[in-house]
Amino acid sequence: MYSADDAQLYADCHTSPESPLLARLNRETHVQLLHARMLSGHAQGRLLSMLSHMVRPRRVLELGTFTGYSALCLAEGLAEGGELHTVEQNPELESRIRRYVAEAEAGLSEQIHLHIGDARQILPALTETWDLVFIDADKINNDTYYELVLPQVRPGGFLLIDNVLWGGKVLDDYPVKPADKDTHAVRAFNAKVQADARVENVLLPLRDGLLLVRKC
Questions:
Q1: pLDDT in tens, 117-141
Q2: pTM for this structure?
Q3: Cβ contacts of residue 151 below 8 Å, gap of 6+?
């Protein structure tokens, strides 16, 4: 029998490599920032890029930019004239994000629009119709973000929600403490999407779980 770590290493070795720019951002994030595990990383980044190339979106929304790795991956598949709006709550990350966006391929800085602040306040002002949405912000507000953006997603459009396995704490036999609000929120959100007749969904056990949702 093989271990989960062995399987992940094999999968990584058989996944297209990240670009030199993404590799540098990946390393810099792990060396210089706390909570570097929040970065999407190689395998998930290549999946985000692949899905974006499949959808060829004109309008992408991301909630939770962190250092910009996932935004750069999602932008790889934008249709001609496409744009990506990404929202990050932490203003201390702004200069780093803008620096890497500026270093990306020609024209990308014109396609990626960074918004700094609370997504709950920013989203109502973004009057776009989204082809693809990636939610990777504070987990306790997953349901709030979902309800804010779903009406703006075109029929047949997609949402991706990260960290839906939440370190295994979502499993029924995990002893969740009453005060663990994040775990309770993730569990409730997963159950809600599973029962939501407005969408179809597949939970992918990649890294910490990625929920792929298609609006009917």
A1: 999 999 999 999 999 999 999 999 9
A2: 0.95
A3: none
